[in-house]
Every structure is written in structure tokens, then in C-alpha cells.
Amino acid sequence: MLLERDQELERIRRCLGRAQEGQGGVLVVAGRAGIGKTALLAAARDTAVGEGFRVLRARGAELEREFAFGVVRQLVEPVLAGASEAERTSLLKGPPGVAARVLGLPGVADERTATPPVAPDPSFAVMHGLYWLCVNLAAERPLTLVVDDAHWADCASLRFLAFLLPRLEELRVAMLMGTRPAEAGENQELLAALTLDPSTELVRLRPLTAAGVARFVAASVGAEPDEDFAVACREATGGTPFLLGTLVEALREERVSPVTASVRRVRDIATSRLSGWVLLWLSRLGPDATDLARAVAILERAELPQAARLAGFAPIDAARAAERLVRAGVLAQPPLSFAHPLLRGAVYSEIAVSERAEAHRRAAKLIAESQNDNARVAEHLLATAPAGDAWVVEQLRAAAGGAAASGAPESAAAYLRRAVAEPPSTEAKAATLLELGMAEFSAGQPAWCHHLEGAVAAAGEDATRIAAALQLAKALVFDQRIGEAVEVCDGAAAHIETADPEAPWLEAMAVTCGLLDAAIAPSVAGRAGALLERARKGLDPPQVSAVAAAVAAATNEPADQVAEWARHAIASGTPPLPQPSEPPWFVSAVLGLLYAECWDEAQALLDVAVAEARAAANGFFLPSLLAYRALLALRRSDLTAAEADARALLEAPGVSAPPPYHRLVATAVLVNAVVERGKFHEAERQLEPLAAVLQSRSQTAGVLLHARGRLRLAQRRFGEALDDFLAAGEIASGTLAVSPCYLPWRSDAALAELAIGETDTARRLSGEELELARAFGAPRALGV
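Request: output the structure for the sequence above.
Response:
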């Protein structure tokens, strides 16, 4: 199989050499099925072992594309399972232990883990920890990660490999991958990020030449073939090594001599499909071997007892059949799997569709009974036909919960879409749609709105309707669709038939959403006043007072009152970090404390919440927590921390990118921070893509206009700066956010007015802000 591959092997050796020297190395072997990628990677693996590398290996599987971190688990589980207790303790110390705990890796039970640094990716705790696990492994001896069939790798694993790629430059780590890029499906973008990165060396395998085919045939049959015979073999197989090997094996079994007179016979045999050849092999091995091979084709990768049960064999009979299949080169072990994906595809395609679906259902039941592995159960259920089975829905929802908790919302969404198709019972429909919509929103998949709307419509009881409406409204705000968010809250409130204790949340959510846009705020101004009055009288649940605190701060209620309401919500006995399904009380309470300048309290709450969100892979809350922690750092003049949190949000790739609302908040913080550092070109670069946003009437547009105004002021473009400050002030006033604790636009506008000689206007603006700051009663606003 490695004929004509000397050049490629030399490139692999150079890649390993760079890794040995601590420069990292990435090499991707690309080509069509059967072209020799697996054989080349096997040779590379042997070379790495010979050079003293520790080799971790994995292989993508078509059936397991939604198994979150499935390829990563293949890489790291064997080394952790085989390590001594002392070795595991050393390897998992710190961030790797966090990842191990989230993924349930071997040896994690007794580990005490430290908190890893911050980033917005829902799976950052896992990625950062896995990165440090690689660092720890490479510290002992050079490390090679070998991933074959990467086009079938799960999205979460590909994201980790993409995360690892730019961090290899100073590590003794080589990454070798084999892939068929054209078959990456939904993961095309992630795979392209790996294969097209400037640091990646790409090896595209070509078919064997006629001379290469001749050498292959000679090595296989022990005789030099005639030229016409070799040409016929190449024409029949396209020079694909795997197909050529299959053809030559068939020719040997038919006792066909490699001479010109046999050319017609070559063509006759080659016209049979690969599946026909495989089935012929199986028939010669006996019916039990055929049945076992079909069971392995369903399972894709299985231990012998599991395959035996699916095939309906006694263990001893299955063992004999497996031995024959391995000897024949059809299967490899352990665990049992096909020697090549084309073999598995040939057997799998010969199973009738209805029989295949039923076999996957039985496989799911077997795994559920023997392994209690929700993700593997779900992978098989994805291949079954909908049948209205409540057990299927339950298993898929459980697997989705596990995937979401490990930072793989794409997998969670795939499982939940299948659960919706089952379909769930009437009682479970709304909850399933709610989970699906939230997973899709976290994964950046556009169908989230449709499914969250479906959850609201399908809700059969007030509590479920309120919960679904709040999540839909929250997601719409994050997506900057503020008017729709208010309509969702009001529409749900109109259908509430009982005095549900959660009902006040719909009104609070409608008010806080409506105040985010100057075009909508007038319609909820009276309701905002009523919300504050109810808070004064203590008529609503304690957590609703958190929203009142944020509204009160913006409308310039006294800082002491703002802080009191925020503390009342925090002290209501709720956990430090709400679940994604809860109303947004926590962020509102923290904002109240931030604006009231209770900075130490806000900092402590944010630090704890960020740590918990990170460890729990809570991607719904983490972006907002980081955005407001960046804002707090800016208020405290900690430019390094502000810039770090803002960049972590803005530079997150792909599915990890924050929703528009948080992206805009983080951009405003970053622009202010870099302007303070004198990096005006960087500030311009951040603002450049946001021209359309700056034309809107949203609060985030106002905050960005204020940031741009500060840039213009620093550039001594005073007229433009004044225009931005006044536009920001118009939006702030239009959303009732008159307090200088929210946006001190008047004092900045006064500086611009002064610079252009308008002393009286400057004095008026600064006087207005001074009066408001005195009424608010917090020192920073007054000091400004």
C-alpha cells in the first residue's frame, strides 16, 4: 500500500522532527476513499514510535459524528486508563482535571481541580483542560496525535483540534490527520480551518501510476505482470490502493495469471461492485460470519460480547466467526471494527433500510442496558425511524443534556431534533422544543427561533409557557430583536390563566427588553414606573427586584436604593449561577451593583459566576458575564482585564462567537480600553464593521456611539466627537437611561463643546450631569 509514498513519508518525518525540537507540527493527509491515507498514517505512527514519541490515536466513525468529543475520548482515555494513580494525579492537576470531570474521563474521581482561565466558548473548560493535558503529556516525551477519517470526527473534537492548532508552535507535539475533505458535511468549515491553516502541511495523495500498479501486483502475486495487465488493473481501480488490493485478491482467488491474455478477465471481475466482492468473501466464511459482520456494520465499533448479542450468537460461536473475519482481513480488533470504511459501507449498504433501522433500535437498547452511555445510545437512535416511543425521546433528551453540559451544543441540537421527530408526547413536547431551541441558539443554528416559538405555543400549563416565553425573549434580545421580545412576553402574559408566582417575570422581562431601544421605550415607560413602585412595596418575588435595580440605576434612582434591591435578589437563597432556563435576574442584580459602584461586591459575584459557568460549560450565561466583567474592569480602570475579557469574547471562533448583543457590549469596552492606551487604529478597526448598528436606536448603538465619540475626541476631531456624544445622549434619554452612572455622555460632550469654543453649552451640559450625579449619590459619577 505504501508504494510511491516515499516522498510523503519524508514529509511526515520532517513534521515529527519539528515536533521533537519543540516547534510543533501539523500534517494532514487528504484524498479519496481507499487512496492509502490509513496505510500512510500507520507507517507514520510506526515512525513516531521508533523516534520515541508517545502516540495517541483515534479514528472518526460515520455513526458517531454527533458523539460529543468522541474522537478526543479515543485519544486520551487509553493513556489515562493505563496510567498509575500517581501519573494520573500529575497529568490531571489543574485545568486538565476540569476537562476530565466534565467529560467523565478515567481517573477523575479523586482529582481536585483548579479553575482555568476565562474564555467565552461554551466548551472552553474542556478545550483549555485538554490543551494542558497535551502539554503535560509532551513534557514527559514528544507526543503525536493521529486522527484518521477526520471528516467523520464530531464537531466538538474538531473544534478542540482547531483550538490546539495555533498553540502547538512551542510544544513537542505533532498532529497527523487523514481526511476526505469532500465528505466533511456540516463540519466542512471546521475541517477547512485545520487543513488550510498556514501552519498545516497538506499532503494530497494521488492514485498510483501504472508503474506503481505494476509493482503492487508483482508484490502481491509474486510475478511481474504484463504491461497490458497492469494498465487494465489501473483502469479498473483508478489507481486506488484499496480497490486495487481488493481486485488483486479476487484475481488470486480466481487463479487469474497477470498476463495480457487475462485482460478481459480483469475487466469482468472489476465490473462486480465492491459489495459483491465483500459478500462473496463473507459467503465463503459462512453464514455466522456474515451475520456477525452485519452486526459490526450496525455498531461500527464494538466489543465481541456486544456484537454477539446483536447478532443473536452465543459468545463462543461469535468468537469463532470473529476469528475467521479477522484472518480474512475483513475485521480488525480490538474492538471489532472493519479493516477499512469501504468494507463497512459495502456490508451496511446491503442491509435493507427497514432492517437497518430496527437493528439500530436494538443496538440502542443493548447499549442502554449494558453500558448506560446516553451518547452512544443516541447515536443509534439517530438512525432509527420515528415511532412515537417515549423511551426514545427520554434517551435523546438525556444525551442532549450531557452534550450541552460538555460544551457540544451542536450534538445536543442533533439529538433533540430527532427527539422532536419521534415525536414526544403532548406533555413532553414543549419542554423538548425549549431544549432544542436553546441548544440551537447556543450552537448558532438559525432554527432556534422557530423551535422556541413552538415551545411557547405547545405549552399546556402556565409554568411551562412562562419559562419558554422568557427564554425566547432572552434569545431575541441577545439577537438584537428587541420589539419581538416585548411582544413574546406580552403575548404569553395574555394567556396566563392562574396566579402563577412566576407571572411577574413576564412583565419585568417586557419592561427591561423595551427599555433597550429608544423606538420602543416610550411604550413601556409607564410600566417601568409601575415596576419600580411594586419593588418599593415588595409586591413581587425577590428576584424581580434585581430587574428593578437595573432599571432604577439607569433612570437615576438613588444608588443606595439600587444596591438594596440588587442585594435583596442576591440574598434570596438562590444558587450563585442560575440555570439557562431561569429568568435573567442574576445579570440584572450584578448590573445594579456595578452601576451603584458597589464594585467589590459585583466583582466577587462575577468571578464566582464566571468560574461556575466555565466549569459547567454554561454557554448561555458566560458571554453576558464576561461582557459585564469587562465593563466593570473598565470602570475600575483595569484596562488589561477589560481588554482581556472583551477580546476573549470577540475573538472566539465559529459556534463559540457571542450573540450580537454581547458582541456589541464587548466591542464598546474594547474600543474604550484601546483608546485609553492610544491605539487609535485598533479602535477604528473594531468599529469599522458596525456602521449599520450605529444607525439604530438601540442602547448598544448608543454605547458604541459614545465609545466612538471618545475616540474622535482623542483624535482631536472635536466636531465629530460632539455629534457622537449627542447622538448617544439622545438614545440614552430615549430609553430613560438618564443617569450618568450608565453613560456619562454630557461631561464628554461638554469637553467637545469646550474644545470648539462653546463655553456656555459646555457649562450647561456639565451642570446637568453634576446635578444628576448628586441625585444618584455614587462617588465615581460625581467625580467624573
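Confidence is low (pLDDT under 50) at residues 110-122.
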